[in-house]
Structure formats: structure tokens, C-alpha cells
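Appendix B. Worked example

We walk through a single record from start to finish. Start with the input: the chain for CDP-diacylglycerol--glycerol-3-phosphate 3-phosphatidyltransferase, Marinitoga hydrogenitolerans, length 178.
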Amino acid sequence: MSLWTAPNILTFVRILATIPMFIITYDEKYYLIAFFVYIFVSLTDLLDGYIARKYNLVSDFGKFMDQIADKILINALFIVFLEIHKLPGWFVAIIIIRDIFISGLRMFLANKNVVVAADKWGKFKTFSQTILIASLYLTPTWNILSNLNLILIILTTFFSLFSGFNYLKKNTVYFKGE
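Next comes the structure step. The output line below is what the pipeline stores for this chain.
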């Protein structure tokens, strides 16, 4: 199977979109544009998976890169929101530490020929992160969302920690003999 399948191209688009998203997030006057671009880019995540399954283009490379693309985009935006004081440092640290830990776990398991696909808890984590980022973009326009952001931060923290623990728990069988 070729590297340049439609799902993989969409994944690379998501990675490349991080650069302009990162830059425009520093200026609140572009937040509405950033919001719509972010929604579009987030939809490519759903679309690449749908296309991969429908046309039998699922690959280990695609599964791995899809998760990396999510982490690049989301963590870059969380760092910007931290820098401009819209997210607390403890939250961004938890998200990044969890992502690095799970990526390390995936690399360790890949050495054992085990591919760890996202499960429902990982999908809940990504969905809650996506909703939080969308809400952060809308906050300057509709301040009522600031309380919602706090709730989303708490929910995202829970899903991040729980999904990380779940990945570790499900894969402890591969640690035997280490």
C-alpha cells in the first residue's frame, strides 16, 4: 500500500495546518477564523478514519500518524493558550506528559510488534480536547463560555488521565519478562 493514500494525506494536512493555527491563535481578532479552520481540520480526523475503513486503506502507519497528528495540533494549541493565559500550566503539563508517556508506551509495544490503536477512552479524550479548544476560541466572543471552559478542563483532565491509565492497564501483559 502506498504512503500517499487519501487518509494519510488528510493526516499530513492536519499536521501542516498546525503552523498557521499556532500563529493566528496569538491574536484574538482572528479567533473566529481560527475556530472555523480548527473545526475543518478536526473534521479531517474523522474523514481520514472513515475513508481508511470504507476503502480498506487502514495501515499501521496511518493509525500511528493519525494519533501523532492529533497530538501535534492539540498540544501546540494548548501551549499557545497557556502562553496567552487561557489555560493553566498544570493542565497543559498533564496533557503533554500523558501524551509523551503513551507515545513511549506505543513505541515500546511497536518493538514487540504490537500496534496500540486508539480506544473509546482515547477518543473521549481527543473529543473533549477538541471541544475545549473550540470553546477557547469562542470565549472572547461569548464570555458565558468561560465557566464552560473550566468544566471542559476538568473533564479533559479526567479523560486524559483515565485513558492513559487504561492503555497501560490493557497492555501490561506485554511487560512480562522485562
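Two observations about the output. The chain has six helices and no strands. The chain has one domain: 6-171.
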